[in-house]
UniProtKB/TrEMBL annotation, chains A, B:
The name this protein goes by in its record: tRNA-specific adenosine deaminase
Organism classification: Bacteria, Pseudomonadati, Pseudomonadota, Alphaproteobacteria, Rhodobacterales
PANTHER family recorded: CYTOSINE DEAMINASE FAMILY MEMBER, TRNA-SPECIFIC ADENOSINE DEAMINASE
BP GO annotations: tRNA wobble adenosine to inosine editing
Record note on cofactor: Binds 1 zinc ion per subunit.
Database matches in Gene3D superfamilies: Cytidine Deaminase, domain 2
Cofactor: Zn(2+)
Function of the protein: Catalyzes the deamination of adenosine to inosine at the wobble position 34 of tRNA(Arg2).
Amino acid sequence: MVGFTSYMAAALEEARAAGLRGEVPVGAVVVGPAGVVARAGNRVRELCDPTAHAEVLAIREACRMLGSERLGGHDLYVTLEPCPMCAQAISLARVGRLYYGASDPKSGGVEGGARVFSHPQCHHIPEVYDGISAEEAARMLREFFANRR
Amino acid sequence: MVGFTSYMAAALEEARAAGLRGEVPVGAVVVGPAGVVARAGNRVRELCDPTAHAEVLAIREACRMLGSERLGGHDLYVTLEPCPMCAQAISLARVGRLYYGASDPKSGGVEGGARVFSHPQCHHIPEVYDGISAEEAARMLREFFANRR
């Protein structure tokens, strides 16, 4: 069955691959009516680019493929609660639904911190579904940071 | 005299050029100890990229030039109050000082809205100076939107 768990599984694969490259293991997938449009893992270190979070890379790639700066009718799956930069990019891209895995009380910007979607200055608010495969996403992050100590 | 007004003048030039390309006229400049490192105007429509705000493009270019995902010791000049995406990118890049022109009560994320720098989840807070050449920056935006009606 193709559904939200399989899309999150693809995001988790991207996260795992990012971890193997020495990046913080976060992965994201953009899904349209016909299935996966773009997928990406974090590449901040590789690209020397502080904006190269998984969500931003997946959104940029999906927009490039579609020839549009907006992704109406598309959903985004990401293994970790987006930071404020990524949350705003999701809003600017008009993503329909945001599915994310683990919460990020330390750096997140959706359910905590800046809560980007909860201000009148946010002109498009996606539907938000959290906690999808959260345990696996969180375990991957814990192991990554434990191994770096 | 080279100083913050001349750097903001360069950002205003970028904003003007963006407007001539049909983009919302916002410009940004990254300045290091030896002067301007990168400059950019908004290219959202041209690049079909919702993240291609002036600040993000200037930060990415400066990081590429310096071979680092961090811009410690560098300042950013932008003609308009950054949105939450750009504010968080400025934080992630460890920009030292943020100088901006006009306030953006409708979409800004620094002094209003998400107020990205004012939460414990924001791990680096730049020094912020607002209102630099604000009148010219605001006039350019007003004229742009008036002409589109």
